[in-house]
UniProtKB/TrEMBL annotation:
Gene3D superfamilies: 1.10.150.130, Intergrase catalytic core. Belongs to the 'phage' integrase family. It holds the Pfam family Phage_integrase. SUPFAM superfamilies: DNA breaking-rejoining enzymes (SSF56349). The keyword DNA-binding applies. It comes from Flagellimonas meridianipacifica. GO terms for biological process: DNA integration; DNA recombination. This is Site-specific recombinase XerD. Keywords: Coiled coil, DNA integration, DNA recombination, DNA-binding.
């Protein structure tokens, strides 16, 4: 499909209530914008005739500039099309304006977030959008350039996140990862010179802090299984938690998407939401007792085992994401109540079902088998994960010295 350029007034105002003039580059129904650097009031824009109205004091100069910008863009588009290269709207924009240093951090971020949404990566979209907004809140500048994001900027941003936003060290690093991702993208697009890259061993280092992974002990899981006098919501939340635990800590998003048709030949067959891997696991006897409790609500083979996703619109990834998020919040609320009744002092959430499996398995299961059960792509990931729960050797070494 041919690409085209058009003058537009973007409908996102700045702090002064003025709106930016831009050249819109469109290819395959996807658009990207090159901001001209001038802002006007909404009343001064003639949408029909695509020009600045006479009510603006500099309407002649601005209209002349717009005609020039559009003419140059169209000439460059013809040259690019003659090369017969299939470029996206964003790549076309960068080719047209690669000598310009005015492309902002937030323009690149906006395109990045659009790609996440188009690829239905809703969980990451939600997290990374918040992190981009942290940069905006800190910089207070929607036209922030990559040249301005240097080591000093990042150190001040880190201080802002710690002191003003009161976020954890891991969250600080997650924010830096998004900035680094966008900076690398800007380098590839020719927006900023690689020599200005602020990350590296001798600059700003991105190193994740060690996270403490707390899992339940075997006795605590038994207490969770056997605690009585629970209400309906508490029983259901416990069932979902135990179902996850019985299958080596299946993530809650995967548990809720399990259908009755996924269960056959005594096995659970499902595709992971995180990386689309297919997995087949034998159904433990304990899991059958949970499944039996939900048979009465089964309407057909393709129905969901658990009720949370029965009304989800799977054509709308945001709806699916929101229903999983809401369900997880609800589960965690009732699991806290179940844990209190079971006299478990640790915080019980859906997430620690996975940690609990790792904690109880310790070094009893070969690492290659654990890799399969955890569905890790790399055995290094499994080794690093399981290292949080293997304490036998270090405990024995300590005892050998101090027990005299």
């Amino acid at each position: 499909m041919a690409s085209n350029a058009k003058i537009v007034l973007r409908k996102k105002s700045n702090k002064e209530g003025l709106y930016p003039l831009a050249i819109r580059i469109t290819k395959n129904r996807r658009s990207n914008y090159h901001y001209i650097g001038h802002y006007i009031e909404l009343k001064d824009w003639d949408e029909k005739n695509i020009r600045v109205r006479k009510s603006h004091p500099n309407h002649k100069r601005l209209n002349s500039l717009l005609v020039t910008e559009l003419s140059e863009a169209n000439k460059a588009l013809i040259d690019l099309q003659s090369d017969k290269k299939d470029l996206s709207a964003n790549q076309i924009k960068q080719k047209l304006y690669k000598s310009s240093q005015s492309t902002s951090f937030f323009e690149v971020a906006e395109e990045f977030l659009k790609e996440l949404e188009a690829n239905n990566k809703i969980a990451r979209l939600s997290a990374d959008k918040a992190r981009v907004n942290h940069v905006l809140s800190f910089s207070k500048n929607k036209q922030l350039t990559f040249q301005e994001i240097d080591e000093q900027f990042l150190r001040r941003f880190r201080s802002y996140l710690r002191n003003k936003r009161n976020v954890s060290e891991r969250s600080v690093i997650n924010n830096f990862v998004v900035v680094r991702t966008l900076y690398n993208r800007a380098i590839k697009l020719g927006i900023v010179d690689k020599k200005l890259y602020p990350f590296g061993s001798d600059k700003i280092r991105i190193k994740f802090p060690e996270a403490e992974k707390v899992g339940l002990e075997k006795e605590e899981v038994i207490a969770l299984e056997t605690v009585e006098e629970l209400n309906e919501n508490q029983v259901h939340s416990r069932n979902v938690w135990l179902f996850s635990f019985y299958f080596a800590g299946i993530r809650v998003a995967d548990v809720l998407k399990i259908r009755w048709s996924d269960i056959y030949d005594g096995r659970l067959h499902y595709r992971m939401d995180k990386n689309s891997k297919l997995l087949s696991l034998k159904i433990p006897n304990k899991a059958y007792s949970i499944l039996d409790q939900y048979l009465k609500s089964k309407h057909h083979d393709n129905d969901f085992v658990f009720p949370e996703m029965k009304k989800a619109d799977f054509k709308n990834p945001k709806d699916v994401y929101n229903k999983i998020k809401t369900a997880t919040k609800k589960f965690n609320k009732y699991l806290e109540q179940v844990a209190e009744k079971a006299e478990i002092t640790k915080k019980v959430t859906m997430h620690i079902a996975r940690h609990s499996f790792g904690n109880i398995s310790e070094d009893k299961i070969p690492i290659k088998m654990l890799q399969k059960l955890y569905r890790h792509s790399s055995i290094t990931t499994t080794i690093n994960y399981q290292a949080n729960f293997i304490h036998k050797e270090t405990d024995e070494a300590l005892d050998s010295v101090i027990n005299f």
